[in-house]
Amino acid sequence: MLTRRRFLRVGPAIAATAYLGCRARGALGDATTDGPVARAEASAEPSLPELEVPVVDTHQHLWDLSKVRLPWLQGSPGLNRSFLPSDYREAAQGLPIQQAVYMEVAVVEEDLVREAEYVLDLCRRGEAPTTAAVIGGRPASPDFAQYVERFRGDPYIKGIRFIPPGTPDGREMFFSRAFSRGLGLLGECGWSFDICVPPDWLEETAAIVARCPDTRFIVDHCGNADPNRFREAEEGVAAAKAYCQKWHAGMEALAGHRAVVCKISGIISRMRPGEWAAEDLAPVVHECVRIFGEDRVMFAGDWPVCTKGGTLRSWVTALQSIVASRSLAFRRKLFAENAIRFYGLPSKS
After folding, report:
1. Are 56 and 336 in contact (CB under 8 A)?
2. What is the spatial distance between Cα 31 and Cα 283, in angstroms, rounded to a whole number?
3. Maximal CA-CA distance, the chain
4. Looking at the predicted structure, is the pLDDT value of residue 124 above 90?
5. How far from 247 is each of 169, 226, 251, 343, CA to CA, in Å?
6. What contacts 281, CB < 8 A, 6 or more positions away?
7. Chain centroid offset of residue 247 CA
8. What CATH number has the domain bearing residue 326?
9. Per-residue pLDDT tens for 60-94?
């Protein structure tokens, strides 16, 4: 809720960005549904300031529910439909996104190969802007080596991601030696692994990185930081302070390994549509840049999951505002160059 005190703190940023084009909607579905209403709202957003650097989106979700099953969508009614390349292109209209890296979408295990073949077909057919993929996988599975071998050498595959269940069994599996052995195979292929775990797992995850010296790692979504907790910590809430301290310790431990980079993403989806400004996201962004350095951070869209808090357009606008005072050289790295180097993507600048 936007209290008087909070309005006085963020009011100037809100006025400057017109809430970054994010307006409260009656349901999440309004933000993620194609049709006249959605397009009318998008066209009503303020024009983007000219972004003088090209953009590589390192976290593009797509799914066709006629091809794969995503059980987690049952708890996300606004996302429970297909999101196709044409939908992404519409969401990205007017943005200088030159390339996108597909990110796996947590399909059921039986559909992993089907998901991989779907996105690889998009890449081979030049289904712009998708030029590479991070596919799903189960590193602790006894069949993981066979699964990796199936796709080894494919130029479009850049890595694997698996989000462990946030349960005691999921935690035990994630920190097992079998899981680390699976991640070691990725290094042999030249692939990376995306770390997407709760903030209180981050510090311990650094031990996994240490066991896999030949594998590169990406911390997804700013270490799953919640900007609301950062604000509460600033206001003196003890539990929020403890949360932020634990997050900082984990991010510092991971950044201590040069093979780890950080995606600047995910934080918009934790905000309520129409009730946030760039200023609310800035502390997390600036801390990630401080911890990892300018050469190890990269922009990620997280569309369509980002629409829980706002449009892809509003997220790009917010991040552009947050880093506006930094050098042009850094902004080029953040929005494109670091991703091109890390993933070995073709340079289109």
Report:
1. yes
2. 26
3. 58
4. yes
5. 22, 10, 6, 26
6. 227, 267, 268, 271, 318, 319, 322
7. 17
8. 3.20.20.140
9. 999 999 999 999 999 899 999 999 999 999 999 99
φ/ψ (deg, to 5) at 192: -110, 170
DSSP string, 153-213: T-TTEEEEE----SSHHHHHHHTSHHHHHHHHHHHHHT-EEEE---GGGHHHHHHHHHH-T
What is the rounded CA–CA span in Å between residue 13 and residue 7? 10
Measuring CA to CA, which residue among 120, 34, 129, 11 is closest to residue 82? 34
How far, in Å, CA of 169 to CA of 335, rounded? 37
What's the pTM value of the predicted model, to 2 decimals? Answer: 0.86
What's the structural domain count of the chain? 1
Unique residue bearing structure tokens 């990620």: 300
Q: What Cα–Cα distance (Å) separates residue 73 from each residue in 89, 157, 230, 234, 305?
A: 22, 25, 28, 34, 11
Instruction: Label residue 15 left, alpha or beta by phi (over 0 means left) and psi (-120 to 50 means alpha).
Output: alpha
Between CA 24 and CA 235 the distance in angstroms is 25
Residue 296, amino acid: R
**pLDDT at site 119:** 97
Query: Are 193 and 161 contacting, i.e. CB atoms less than 8 angstroms apart?
Result: yes
In the block, tokens 């890390």 appear at: 342
Domain containing residue 217: 4-30+52-343
Residue 290, domain member (yes or no) = yes
Q: Is residue 232 part of a domain?
A: yes
Q: Is residue 38 part of a domain?
A: no
3-state helix, strand, coil in the chain (%, to 5): 55, 15, 35
* Residue 44 covered by a domain: no
Q: Is the pLDDT of residue 150 over 90?
A: yes
Q: Are the C-beta atoms of 313 and 97 separated by less than 8 Å?
A: no
Tens of pLDDT, residue by residue over 323-347, are: 999 999 999 999 999 999 999 999 8
- For residue 245, the one-letter residue type is Q
